[in-house]
Amino acid sequence: MSKQHGNVLKAWYWNTVEAGSMAALVSELLDDDPIHGFVGVVDTAAEESPDDYAIEPGGWAAAQDNWIAIDEPIEQGCLVRYEVWDGEPPAPLPVASTWQGAVYLESGIIQPEDNAGTDLTGSRFELGRPDRRWNVRVHRDRLGHGAFPPDVARRTLITLQFWP
Length: 164
Prior knowledge:
mainly beta; 1 helix
């Protein structure tokens, strides 16, 4: 079960099995305040910030010990959702861009940061187990504005899924 540090965010805890999957969602957190200047997530014990130069040409995400860099240039900000699963989560929807890899996290507590090391929200998400390598899948989905003004509906949705 996840604990909150810093700001209180919407969090839900599940002990159910998702339809069609053997893996169960253990906990999730939606940080519903748009993040601007987003570069990635970092373990709170990390001594360095996400480095967007680690992303390969043509790519949009990369991971190194204690951080995940995400190339997200949209100025209107993005919404970030964190999930912990007890096994590999179901396959992503085909509409979202997906990156998958593994990352070592020292404390197991992560927060969004920019490349200058600035904590962007004061929010923390605890994965529940420190000092381990996690499998991670990052989904990126961009919402278009359609009939709404771009500053209202043009957002990027980032979902980070972690499992042992």
